[in-house]
Amino acid sequence: MPIDPSLPYDDANIFAKILRGELPCNKVYEDDHALAFHDIRPQAPVHVLVIPKAAYVSWDDFTAQADDATIAGFMRAVGTVTRQLELAEPGYRLMVNMGQAGHQEVPHLHVHIFGGRQFFQMICD
Ligand code: AMP
To answer: Which CATH superfamily is domain 14-115 in?
Structure first.
């Protein structure tokens, strides 16, 4: 069920619980800005989620509200994770679902990293 991105941040969302250590995750990477872990329902041979440590509902919320250092730290973390996973060659795909039409389901910003296969169509449905 897609979220309503206009709602305030919900501390009970599943990624907030993972950040607080209340739920487990299959961790790939962590630094001051970000946590990365394997998606529980992978849609590619490599499917990793990168989330900011701070509380942002969505890409829209993050890019409007976060300060430059927070945005830079998060973006650099996404790049670090792709290199750690050795995806730069032959390549990979990043995706952010935003809000209802973007079919965002978890109301804490996350970047999907897909890799380990050849991608073709950008949007299937
Ligand atoms: P989105 O539709 O962009 O909000 O994607 C949410 C993603 O979170 C989906 O790909 C889910 O499979 C993934 N997900 C949900 N719960 C968990 C969890 N506990 N651990 C890892 N991934 C999860």
So the answer is: HIT-like (3.30.428.10)
Contact predicate 22/36, CB 8 Å = no
Which of 103, 108, 110, 112 is labelled catalytic? 110
The residue extents of the domains of the chain are 14-115
pLDDT at res. 93 = 98
What residue type is 102 in one-letter code?
G
When the pLDDT of each residue in the chain is averaged and rounded to a whole number, the result is 96
Instruction: Quote the pLDDT of residue 123.
Output: 83
R_g of the chain computed on alpha carbons: 14
Å from CA of 40 to ligand 1 middle: 6
Q: How far is the CA of 20 from the centre of ligand 1 (A)?
A: 16
What is the Cα–Cα distance from 104 to 2, expressed in whole angstroms? 5
Quick check: bond before 107 cis, omega within 30?
no
Tokens of 24: 């487990």
| Cβ atoms of residues 30 and 51 within 8 Å | no
